[in-house]
Design brief:
Blueprint lengths: L1 H4 L2 H22 L1 H7 L3 H32 L5 H4 L22 H25 L9 H13 L8 H4 L2
Helix pairs in contact: 2-4, 2-6, 4-6
Length: 164
């Protein structure tokens, strides 16, 4: 966990994530505001909802990244960073949006914020999930069976298929 926070991968993710936060804020407070005023009432509501979701995903991602930076700088332990209050939830089901009706730049930000959030969620899950179980190595299991048979034990070549 500490290794990740000190890695080049983290540095790049932190830089990209915070950069996206800045880009989104500049768009939503500037050109995006102007573009939303040109939309009819229904589309303006969709725009508002989507821009709120972009902002929420980016703020949650940025918060997670700041916590990881605190781990790197020894302001927080990896165990503290794994506390539920710092964890990131799986991405919600994506609802359909008529992307052709929304400004292209907002659609780009929707996609980029989803990609960042998904990446952060996967890292969070890999680093802090207590449900992570080692996967069964079927090749090693088969080699053990062959070794057992070579040593005089009984070998049933169809046993592996019956277990499934």
């Amino acid at each position: 966990m500490d290794e990740f926070a000190g890695s080049e991968v983290f540095d790049r993710l932190f830089k990209d994530g915070m950069g996206l936060v800045e880009v989104a804020a500049a768009y939503l407070d500037g050109p995006g505001r102007e573009e939303s005023r040109k939309l009819d009432r229904e589309l303006a509501l969709v725009y508002a909802a989507e821009s709120m979701e972009v902002t929420t995903r980016l703020m949650q991602s940025a918060s997670w990244l700041v916590v990881q930076r605190a781990v790197r700088e020894k302001d927080m332990t990896a165990e503290e960073a794994g506390d539920e209050k710092y964890r990131i939830a799986p991405i919600e089901e994506i609802h359909p949006v008529d992307r052709k009706a929304l400004p292209a730049r907002l659609c780009d930000l929707i996609d980029q914020s989803r990609a960042l959030y998904e990446r952060v969620w996967r890292l969070d899950d890999a680093l802090y999930s207590s449900e992570t179980k080692p996967t069964e190595n079927l090749v090693m299991k088969q080699i053990d069976r062959l070794r057992n048979a070579a040593e005089g034990g009984a070998f049933d070549p169809l046993a592996i298929w019956r277990e499934k």
